[in-house]
Structures are given as C-alpha cells and as structure tokens.
Amino acid sequence: MFDRGDGDLWRQISETITDEISRGVLPPGQRLPASTALAARFGVHQHTVLKAVSHLQAEGVLRVERGRGTFVAERPIAFQIGARTWFEQNLLESNHAPARRVLSVVEMAAPHALAETLRIQPGDALCVVTLLGEADGVPIYLGRDHFPVERLPGIGDYFRSFGSEPTDRIVFSSLFRQFGVDDFRRRDVRVRARPPSTSEVHHLRMTMNVPILETIVTLVDRVDRPLAQGLAAYCSDRVELAMSL
C-alpha cells in the first residue's frame, strides 16, 4: 500500500508495474488484473489505477483491448513492405502464427477512381473482400481488397468458401494461382497515419487514442496488369512498417 500523502500515487503504480514487466513478473501478452483488483492491491481509488494504466498505454508499455482487458504490450511486429514480401512471411519470420478471417464479401460497381487504378471501366463489377489479419490470435490489421471480377471470375465464392472463422489458408499467392496468375507484386504503396474509425476500434480491439497506419497498395501481375487494390489499417502499437527498397 502506498503512502496516501503522496499526490503522485499513479506514478508509483506505473513504476511498480513497469518494474514487474522488466523483471518478467508480467511477461509480454500477460493480462493485468482488473482495475478494481489493482486498486485493492495498492490501496488506492480505482481512478488512480486507471490514470496509471492510461499513462502506461500512452508510453506503449500496456495495450487496452476493448471488451477484453489490459495486457502487457508485446514488441511491435516489423512488417517489411517490399515488392514481394507478404503477410504470412512477415509473421512466420518473426515466430508468429498468421491467420485471416473473412468478415464480408460483396460486389459493387467500380467508381471512377478505382476503375482508373484497376484499368477497368467505371461501373464494372468489383468484388470487395474485408479481412481481419491476426498474429497469434491478436488482430493487427483490418483490410479491404478490391478485385476486378472480369479478371478473377469466381473470386467472391473463393473467399466465401473459407467461412467466417480464422484460418491460415487464405494466402494471396495461392489465391491468384487459382486464377492462373503465377507471379504478382506490389506496384505502389502509400502510407498514412490517421485516427481509427469506430469499426476499426471494434475489430482491432483497440482504443481511439491509438493511431492507425493505413497502407494503400496496388497488386499487379508479371505484365503489370492490376489484380487488386488493397487498403489495410494496421494498429500502430502492434506493427512497425519497414520499406524494402
């Protein structure tokens, strides 16, 4: 129990938790006790504990998942963004288990900007697939990929065949081989930081004060024909993006 005469009780709690993390008492990924239990442990009000947790979250020491609790932050996963470096490769090389979950598959008419990027006509059919990417069961990115249906007929049914459970069988190299594409690459990548949307907060189990790293990528085949445009929103306290030039 801390000295109640000290006006910086939350700092003492922060230092204690940080020390326990550094000594391995609280390992990466460990879920902390509820704030009520921590308040009882330290003999303080619950709001004092919440202030300490908020401070450690801002410092990247803890991460808060909506509806699940507070966890010791793991070291961010380094994602190499190159012409031919992919989700599964990044995670496996970092000793993490990759998985994807299909959230939705819908068709829409291509708006002008996407039609221009994908070299199709405005109004042509697009298959839009929303995927949740996970590492060791922890969500790290929410993606929306746009595929030209005329070039990849049956692409929607391909994704629907996986159901809605996480799977390691959604691999884009295997996907494109199903449609006769034996080689593909990233042609261009744009990256920006922005606040998360309500949907991203929900699916990524994050909080509103953690920024999103968004990538916008165009995939092309060996003759530079566009195959997809993908937008991926990464939780910035779980992923570091590195460019391979």
SSE inventory with pairings:
Layout: H1 9-22, H2 35-42, H3 46-58, E1 62-65, E2 69-72, E3 77-81, H4 87-93, E4 98-109, H5 112-118, E5 125-135, E6 138-148, H6 155-160, H7 172-177, E7 184-194, H8 198-204, E8 212-221, E9 226-235, E10 239-243
Parallel strand pairs: 3-10
Antiparallel strand pairs: 1-2, 4-5, 5-6, 6-9, 7-8, 8-9
Helix pairs in contact: 1-3, 2-3
Oligomer kind: single chain
The CATH superfamily of the largest domain is identified as: Chorismate lyase-like
Helix content: 25-40%
CATH topology descriptor of the largest domain:
Chorismate lyase
What's the CATH class of the largest domain, please? Alpha Beta
The termini sit apart by 53 Å
| Order of helical and strand elements | HHHEEEHEHEEHHEHEEE
Tell me about the biggest sheet? 6 strands, antiparallel
| Strand content range | 25-35%
Shape: elongated
Q: Taking Cα atoms only, what radius of gyration do you get, to the nearest Å? A: 21 Å
- Structural class estimated from helices and strands: alpha+beta
- Number of spatially distinct domains: 2
Number of strands: 10
* Uncertain regions spanning at least 5 consecutive residues: none
Number of helices: 8
Strand order of the largest sheet: 4-5-6-9-8-7
Provide mean pLDDT, rounded: 92
Architecture of the largest domain in CATH? 3-Layer(aba) Sandwich
